[in-house]
Amino acid sequence: MGSDPTEVDLNKLRDLVRRGQHTGNDALVPKTERVFVDKGKIVMGEDLDGRDRQALTRIVTETPFAARRDDEQNIVSRKFPPGAKPMTAGGVAGWLYDVTCELGTTYTFWTYFDEADGYYKTRVLEPHIEEFWCEPHRGHIFTSTNRLCLDTRYGGGAPTLEKAFSRTVLWANGFSVALQTGTFPFSL
Amino acid sequence: MSDSEDAWLARIDPTHKAAFQSATVMVVGNGSVGSYLVEQLARVGVQYFILIDPDTVEEPNLSRTVFLRDDIGRKKTEALRRRVLAINPNARVITEEMQYELVPREMMRRYINSATIVVAATDTMRTQYAINRDAYFVGRPVVYIGIYAAAKAGEIITCIPTKTPCFRCVVGTLRETFDGSDEVRRETDYGTGRVAGVIALPCDIHHISTTAIRMILSIIASLQAENSNLALYLAGAMQRHLSVTLVNVEQDFWIFKELLGGSPGQYAAQSIWLVPQNDRECPVCAKRADASDPFSANITEVSNEELIRAAKQP
Description:
The structure holds two protein chains of two kinds.
Chain A: H1 10-23, E1 35-38, E2 41-44, E3 56-59, H2 64-79, E4 85-89, E5 92-100, E6 106-114, E7 119-126, H3 136-139, E8 141-142, E9 147-148, H4 161-181
Antiparallel strand pairs in A: 1-2, 1-3, 4-5, 5-6, 6-7, 8-9
Chain B: H1 14-22, E1 24-28, H2 32-43, E2 48-52, H3 76-87, E3 92-96, H4 105-114, E4 117-120, H5 125-138, E5 142-147, E6 153-159, H6 167-178, H7 202-222, H8 229-239, E7 244-248, H9 255-260, E8 270-274, H10 304-312
Parallel strand pairs in B: 1-2, 1-4, 2-3, 4-5
Antiparallel strand pairs in B: 5-6, 6-7, 7-8
């Protein structure tokens, strides 16, 4: 296959880009599957022979999103409660799962990566907190969105999915106590 | 602009006039810090502004902003646009009367691309982070201004892509160093997620803001007169990696007491300049070549209705 743009196999290009995206780490993309630009023309890795390597610009085909999603899947399958599943809402991908705390209450949570600040956040879907809790500050919850305040150091979020999950479980147990005593037993 | 039209700038250093007049400053958050800052920039000749703020001028704003009683009920951006035009009728002011995250992403890319510098003066950390990610990706400097509890002190964080750690890294450093400092933490409104308004003297807020204004003008001045005293003001700090500035107005407040309290002749107002560290895992500035395009991401908060709808789907 030649390097003239009219001869570029677009199906093959699409496949290479997709494979690169799913690799999640650009360094792992095999040399023959890399994609370059030579003076505005697409060149596949297997067609590099005879070209001036200095003039080539490599197109990074991985997407951090794909890599992050794979990492998340790995953590969810190993550490989240059974039944945790992916759920996309409003174009934002996250994980839906139930947590039953020590006092027996079951909460349904959605934990997701917030693209605005780069932290993981958790929203509570069940039970409907607003129906029986009207002191948001003492409940560590942002009432307009039912988003948990997991850690004040990170704008109410957490730097990793794993930390967000563990703080969510902590919140559930603390909140269940608060429902009975009126006071959150610890600060978050 | 003709010389006669320029007469009102006669007392501005001609070395910097062209740089000020050609600069575009994007200011996100047009409250007590942002509105004061915009007016000060307009008065030295800056005439291209992009103003973003969803709020409306209310009566309590009159004590600490540049707004007038007639502005009550107007959007802050519109009131500020009028203020700028009252100083310089030739100014061009673009306004967005909405939260930063709600501005269409491609429009935001254009705004930041066209800006010489971005100023982040919002009351929402999430927005400050979003500005950080966007501006770093485009390669624009940002000055972040934060006022601590009761405006006894504040922080100014200067982020210049590839030269300084980004805002996220800086905040991380500050948290690690000063975690648990309730003295400086402002209460968050759990309904809105915004930092709650505080009782404070406007002169205290403006003192901190004024330091930031000098930094902004220093960055702008460096574009055309890099060896001028004004340009060298911030360049000197950057050479020493001092990209975080803490400014107090009350003596012996917080770490100022520990660091400067024993020094003879020291009293408020004071400043302490810090060297923040890069987070090697920072998704914004650690791996710039691999960074994903933030303008292709949805950064609006998912509504409760969208969330419930998604959860009901099989």
